[in-house]
Amino acid sequence: MSGRISDSTVRRLSLYLRMLRDLERAGVEFVSSSQLAEPSGATSAQVRKDLSHFGSFGKRGRGYSVDGLVRALEEILGLSRSWRLALVGVGKIGSALLGYGGLAARGFDVVAAFDVDEAKIGTRAHGLRIRPMRELRPAIAECGAEIGVVATPTEVAAEVAAELERAGVGAILNFAPIELSEVNGVPIRTVDIVLELEGLSYLMSEAGRRTGSDG
Amino acid sequence: MSGRISDSTVRRLSLYLRMLRDLERAGVEFVSSSQLAEPSGATSAQVRKDLSHFGSFGKRGRGYSVDGLVRALEEILGLSRSWRLALVGVGKIGSALLGYGGLAARGFDVVAAFDVDEAKIGTRAHGLRIRPMRELRPAIAECGAEIGVVATPTEVAAEVAAELERAGVGAILNFAPIELSEVNGVPIRTVDIVLELEGLSYLMSEAGRRTGSDG
DNA sequence: CCGCCCTTGTGAAAGGTTTCACAAACCAAG
DNA sequence: CTTGGTTTGTGAAACCTTTCACAAGGGCGG
Ligand SMILES: NC(=O)c1ccc[n+]([C@@H]2O[C@H](COP(=O)([O-])OP(=O)(O)OC[C@H]3O[C@@H](n4cnc5c(N)ncnc54)[C@H](O)[C@@H]3O)[C@@H](O)[C@H]2O)c1
Ligand SMILES: NC(=O)c1ccc[n+]([C@@H]2O[C@H](COP(=O)([O-])OP(=O)(O)OC[C@H]3O[C@@H](n4cnc5c(N)ncnc54)[C@H](O)[C@@H]3O)[C@@H](O)[C@H]2O)c1
């Protein structure tokens, strides 16, 4: 049980949890590994293996208790609490995030927002006062934000990430298309839209090459 | 040479290309696999293996010609052309995308935008007229968009994706937090911010558990 | 209590990706 | 032309993830 868990396992656990919450809302009491597998495109064996890293949650012959597994997965993923986010860069993507109800609904609350633009500092965006960068360190210490969000231009993203880390966040979500290197064990996830589009570009070109010539 | 190429390889090729373009701009002529590896956190062997799936691009003893490899990777990834995107859902995230210069700069042009909101239809966002959904099929046929972008509420995302597919797009980029299943070989990439945050939540909780108890 | 059906949990096998390590190739200098 | 220093391209090994397949356990009807 429980050694190092792969990213793909954790990803799938989140997807299982999503489905379980839907089932819970629908009043379903038990679910089997194969039902759980379907929406994420996994196999039933994979579901069972993923869960087995953390313990034994099912009843043989019956499946898993929906309520029980929801609680267990929330515990495993750290979602039985809520997390506070500090946003840096209230531009196009930063504003979209501030207005996104889907975050708070899942326990991720943006509690502070920062920018360098004098025209924005002091104004309110979705109920949150935009603060100057100079307040970043004390404000994060004060409000206890655990996750920093980088939504600044690419050129300053690395510096902003380093500053967030110094301010004491435990993890960083980055929207700039640049690979930020983790230091001090603070994990960083980058949402890189251009990379996704280039992946699609590859697949479409590949399909064209296969169909187009010979094949 | 060239069988089925893994997603992670394609991902890294994009990152190599990014660095190569920087080097090109800086006037560098040759680059070694180890220099190329650094920014993406790969190893030099990995760089060479990744490239070897597609051919032999380097000169032993010298490294890779920056210009030559840029051309080769653009060809492989399908980036020696530009791609047309059709956006469905001009809300918070859709508007952010429309205003994002980083897409056009890398050869991804949003050429059509659609919504169901009567108040938005007919108005212009970043120079593009917002069209009613009823025009989706003919408009995509006419302008020849290859990639559909789903930026609608989650509840309608699957239906919108299906409609885009019927309209003839070759790939879909989805921002709704839902796993859409590929049909007809049209690849789908989902950008799921909540999933990324939950991954970070897991890592932070895990770190806490390791530090907190015993360890 | 027994026997049947169902589903889990899990070693073992298969499949895939990354790293290792070295011969082959190239350049420059003498 | 030969030698030495450097870096590629690539099989083989190591490592990691997924799938297979089945014994073990649980519920239920009789
Ligand atoms: N807009 C999008 O849809 C989109 C999509 C994908 C990725 N991105 C990436 O997200 C990042 C932000 O993009 P955007 O479109 O929101 O840009 P934007 O220009 O609209 O916003 C950037 C904000 O960051 C602020 N800023 C600049 N330097 C700063 C600093 N040193 N410290 C703090 N704040 C600073 C600016 O004042 C501005 O408010 C970019 O890296 C971009 O590549 C954007
Ligand atoms: N806002 C964010 O920062 C953010 C972040 C991550 C994910 N998302 C996801 O992106 C999606 C859009 O989010 P948003 O915040 O932009 O929402 P939004 O409500 O601001 O925008 C949604 C848009 O879609 C349009 N729409 C609704 N039904 C439609 C249909 N059937 N066909 C075409 N258009 C339709 C609406 O009129 C609206 O303009 C959601 O699935 C959300 O979960 C948003």
Task: Write up what this structure looks like.
Two copies of one chain form a homodimer. With 215 residues, chain A is of the alpha/beta class. In chain A, 46% of the residues lie in helices and 18% in strands. Chain A has nine helices and ten strands. In chain A, the strands form two sheets. Chain A has a seven-stranded mixed β-sheet. Chain A has a three-stranded antiparallel β-sheet with strand order 1-3-2. In chain A, a hairpin with a 2-residue loop joins strand 6 and strand 7. The relative contact order of chain A is 0.09. At the A-B interface, helix 1, helix 5, strand 9 and helix 9 of A face helix 1, helix 5, strand 9 and helix 9 of B. Chain A binds a DNA duplex (30 and 30 nucleotides) through helix 3 and strand 2.
Quickly list its features.
215 residues; binds nicotinamide-adenine-dinucleotide; 7-stranded mixed beta sheet; alpha/beta; Arc Repressor Mutant, subunit A; DNA-binding; homodimer; Rossmann fold
Task: List unreliable stretches of 5+ residues of chain A.
Answer: none
Q: In angstroms, what is the radius of gyration of chain A?
A: 21 Å
The distinct bound ligands, ions and cofactors come out as: nicotinamide-adenine-dinucleotide
Strand residue percentage of chain A: 15-25%
Q: Biggest interface pair, residues each?
A: A-B, 56 and 56 residues
Instruction: Count helical runs of chain A.
Output: 9
Average of pLDDT of chain A:
96
Name of the CATH homologous superfamily of the largest domain in chain A:
NAD(P)-binding Rossmann-like Domain
**CATH architecture tag of the largest domain in chain A:** 3-Layer(aba) Sandwich
How are the strands of the biggest sheet of chain A laid out side by side?
6-7-5-4-8-9-10
Structural class of chain A: alpha/beta
CATH topology of the largest domain in chain A: Rossmann fold
